[in-house]
């Protein structure tokens, strides 16, 4: 069963630490509303329901329209055994007729790790009884007046307000984010499951691309003319087809929805970090003389050949409200092989990721990984001659590695953070990940300030944290515009690489006692990616 009580104790403990000392021994009550099913206007049909993450964390309850009352008091029996009272809607005739009803109370009791479950109409009395038993309690809610959290209707707060009970929305979200920052075994199991489903979906897309290269996908007689193409007859010739196959693969394994809208970007569109159109055909045209040929008749129209290009897919499904977040960049056209330029950039991003992962362990500050990635990029670009190098090994030169790092120019190619916390949400627990006042640095070396602008995690790693490791290199015209006259760049060499667009490689890892465990199972080594995408394995 989902460990909701453990989560409640962890959250109460964090909350008490946040309170002023004079409030810490008072009874603390949490009052939370779950998400309600959204309906689309003029359709009478539900839109996707997703439980509010904090509600799920404290209750394990995915019933729409539910409420939760938790009670805790430091130094009493309630501190090891807080009372948790869940309220679910009653089954109505209309629910049975139109849709799937909520569970009965008896069914819900079997499913949830809470003290007691009642129907929603019992909530006002339950609040009244709590206020009689604990007249000096503080009632904590998620931020009120925010569209991000379900509102609590006044019928459930009126009585407490009339008795001058003290409400606070100042501490609960921060306490929840602090508690959610490290994951327990049950949460890691859910994240692993989401990641393994998404890993297979990435491999499915790559293998279908490879089958296309080998002409192993036959449209069948009359397909596409007298009858629609069946899934086994689809080639992937457009971003939308890749997205459709990815989502279908997750869905057939039981995942209800994606953790975020998939990013499926071919060619130079891969330089848009959160590209959201997924609507273009891959580009077509002659394969350049120096490139590998498509060794067969790619595409159902034999006269066409795909241009060599990359296809970046950043996509991950959700499993029981827990996210995955995986990016793979694969070669399209060119017989399923990277061009020499794309291969070199791919290898460099892989090196950024490998060196990052090798360093992971509790205590390591995430800012250090960000700097490591920039340093690796600068070294790699010097090897590729995109960045100039000193003629001699004189380290004080204006174009030495340290000088280039200090200039911040690498941010034009790697503008985002190397990773973020992941859990119930993809960019999980933001308020606990990036302290406003960073007093955790402890004298570690920092790079140019631009390296940290979009870094979503700025903490030392702890055992049980789940994070993404997602370096990337991009050639975005918008990001390159300000460095077009940089003296560190050999602009002629850069030109050769710009058509690569972008490469990102992203895995999800859990920090262990002495290192990390990779929860992403789809491989990313260059030879394997090319072998699969060219259909040779
Ligand atoms: N999928 C968005 C990200 O990687 O952060
Ligand atoms: Mn990510
Ligand atoms: Mn991602």
UniProtKB/TrEMBL annotation:
CDD domains: Prolidase. The keyword Ion transport does not apply. PROSITE patterns: PROLINE_PEPTIDASE (PS00491). Its cofactor is Mn(2+). InterPro entries: Aminopep_P_N (IPR007865), Creatin/AminoP/Spt16_N (IPR029149), Creatinase/aminopeptidase-like (IPR036005), Pept_M24 (IPR000994), Peptidase_M24B_aminopep-P_CS (IPR001131), X-Pro_dipept-like (IPR052433). One of its GO terms (molecular function) is metalloaminopeptidase activity. Belongs to the peptidase M24B family. This is Probable Xaa-Pro aminopeptidase.
């Amino acid at each position: 069963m989902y460990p909701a009580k453990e989560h409640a104790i962890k959250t109460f403990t964090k909350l008490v630490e946040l309170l002023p000392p004079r409030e810490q021994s008072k009874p603390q009550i949490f009052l939370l509303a779950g998400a309600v099913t959204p309906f689309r206007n003029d359709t009478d049909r539900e839109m996707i329901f997703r439980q509010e993450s904090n509600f799920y964390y404290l209750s394990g309850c995915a019933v729409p329209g539910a409420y939760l009352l938790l009670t805790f008091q430091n130094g009493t029996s309630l501190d090891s055994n807080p009372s948790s009272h869940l309220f679910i809607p009653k089954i109505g005739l209309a629910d049975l007729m139109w849709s799937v009803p909520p569970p009965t109370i008896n069914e819900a009791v079997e499913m949830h790790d809470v003290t007691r479950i009642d129907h929603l109409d019992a909530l006002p009395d339950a609040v009244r009884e709590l206020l009689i038993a604990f007249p000096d309690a503080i009632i904590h809610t998620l931020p009120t007046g925010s569209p991000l959290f379900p509102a609590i209707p006044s019928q459930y707060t009126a009585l407490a307000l009339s008795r001058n009970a003290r409400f606070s929305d100042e501490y609960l979200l921060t306490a929840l984010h602090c508690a959610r920052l490290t994951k327990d075994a049950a949460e890691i199991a859910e994240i692993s499951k989401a990641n393994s489903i998404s890993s297979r979906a990435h491999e499915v897309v790559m293998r279908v691309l490879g089958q296309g290269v080998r002409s192993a996908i036959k449209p069948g007689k009359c397909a596409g003319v007298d009858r629609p193409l069946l899934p086994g007859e689809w080639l992937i010739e457009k971003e939308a087809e890749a997205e459709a196959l990815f989502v279908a693969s997750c869905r057939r394994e039981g995942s209800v929805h994606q953790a975020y809208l998939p990013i499926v970007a071919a060619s130079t569109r891969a330089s848009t970090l959160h590209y959201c159109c997924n609507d273009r055909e891959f580009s077509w045209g002659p394969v350049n003389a120096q490139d590998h040929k498509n060794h067969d008749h790619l595409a159902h129209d034999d006269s066409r050949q795909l241009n060599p290009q990359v296809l970046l897919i950043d996509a991950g499904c959700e499993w029981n409200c827990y996210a995955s977040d995986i990016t793979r960049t694969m070669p399209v056209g060119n017989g399923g092989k990277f061009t020499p330029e794309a291969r070199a950039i791919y290898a460099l991003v892989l090196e950024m990721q490998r060196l990052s992962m090798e360093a992971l362990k509790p205590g390591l500050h995430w800012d250090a990984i960000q700097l490591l990635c920039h340093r690796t990029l600068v070294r790699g670009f010097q090897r590729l001659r995109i960045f100039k190098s000193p003629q001699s090994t004189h380290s004080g030169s204006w174009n030495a590695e340290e000088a280039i790092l200090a200039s911040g120019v690498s941010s034009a190619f790697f503008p985002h953070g190397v990773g973020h916390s992941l859990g119930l949400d993809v960019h999980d627990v933001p308020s606990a990940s990036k302290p406003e006042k960073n007093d955790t640095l402890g004298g570690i070396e920092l790079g140019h300030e631009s390296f940290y602008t979009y870094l979503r995690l700025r903490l030392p790693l702890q055992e049980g944290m789940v994070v993404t490791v997602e370096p990337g290199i991009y050639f975005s015209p918008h990001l390159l515009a300000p460095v077009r006259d940089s003296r560190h760049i050999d602009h002629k060499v850069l030109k050769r690489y710009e058509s690569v667009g972008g490469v990102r490689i992203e895995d999800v890892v859990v920090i262990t006692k002495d290192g990390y465990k990779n929860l992403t199972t789809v491989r990313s080594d260059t030879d394997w990616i090319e072998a699969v995408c060219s259909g040779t394995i």
